[in-house]
Amino acid sequence: MNANELYNSRSEGPPIDGIIGNSSAMREVYRITRKVAITNASVLLLGETGTGKELIAQAVHKLSPRESGPFVRVNCGAFSESLLESELFGHVRGAFTGAIDNRTGRFEAAHTGTIFLDEINSTTPMLQVKLLRVLQEREFERLGDTQTIEVDTRLIAASNTNLASEVENQRFREDLYYRLNVVPIYLPPLRLRREDIHDLVTHFLNYYNEEYDRYVVHIQKEAFEALNDYHWPGNVRELQNYMERAVVMASGDELTTDLLPDEVRGKSTSRSPGNRAVDLETLTFELVEQGLSTAGPQEDSLHTKVVSRVERELIVQVMTACDNVQIKAAAKLGINRNTLRKKLKEYSLDVSS
């Protein structure tokens, strides 16, 4: 998505049931989710661990014509190559040692519904070939069988790593990447949607109050300031864990700073964004947000100038981070390589790479 599209969509996208957050970053997620859900397009969910990719996958399914069909989730990182192949495609008796019965795979189980492949970046090249075939031909064979099974399943994939980099380093098939990346949805990290922290804290307190029969309903000012200032390397999942612990340990009705871990209170060294690898999706959103915050929807001339300035800076930053590899930068920008080359020429940037 380019800066102009994001600018024009900032007011769109009301919240989706079951997902907390009304920040501009999340409203953009809601907008794309609703738009893609009614189609049969493949969706690629991108974002750091703990940002809620599975919730969005479920939302795409529930908002789609496939809602009445099954929603099947597979964590690709939790299986070895051989086990994952059997898990996805099934097997027949005798296909391998221990295969004492026929088994239906997850793709077959998701027929007429949706299959969500989390951590798809962990799949091996051999398995990626089979995934590509399912996407293109809608058919496969169980392990040890010659009978072809046709399946009508929508695929949603998720990755917490930069798949474009994986392609560039020949660890992920380029053709599969483009088949998966029909509609990418970027889940922003919590540090880029701090305005949602209060609602998330309230939601998790209410949830765990009911779960543990407690009554922690007030938030100490200092405690909230600590929560708001923390960099949240584990994102919403980390916040949820801390709220559960606070409810369990609280002796009164207030969330106080002493119920928070040392790293949140700034009393211990913990992971920080500065020690993390560059997250280009985060960089993209930050730059666009910084640029567009200076322009109002009625200021067409200013809007055009701001969009151009931010778009040029965005391209420079992404190209630099991608070591001037255009195919990689184009993927991160959500445009094709020819469009990127035109933009490079338009902004008088180096097009030799």
Give a written overview of the molecule.
With 353 residues, the chain is α/β, with parallel strands linked by helices. It folds into three domains: 38-189, Rossmann fold, CATH 3.40.50; 191-273, Helicase, Ruva Protein, domain 3 (Orthogonal Bundle), CATH 1.10.8; 280-346, Arc Repressor Mutant, subunit A. Helix content is 46%, strand content 11%. It contains 15 helices and eleven strands. The strands form four sheets. A five-stranded parallel β-sheet has the order 2-5-8-1-9. The protein has a two-stranded antiparallel sheet with strand order 3-4. It starts with a helix and ends in a 7-residue tail after the last helix. Residues 1-11 and 270-303 have low confidence and may be disordered.
| Total domain count | 3
Integer-rounded radius of gyration: 22 Å
Q: Tell me the total number of β-strands.
A: 11
Order of helices and strands: HHEHEHEEHEHEEEHHEHEHHEHHHH
What is the correct CATH architecture of the largest domain? 3-Layer(aba) Sandwich
How much helicity do the residues have?
40-55%
Largest sheet: 5 strands, parallel
**For the residues shown, what is the average pLDDT?**
82
Shape: globular
| Topology-level CATH name of the largest domain | Rossmann fold
> CA-to-CA gap between the ends?
23 Å
Structure classification? alpha/beta
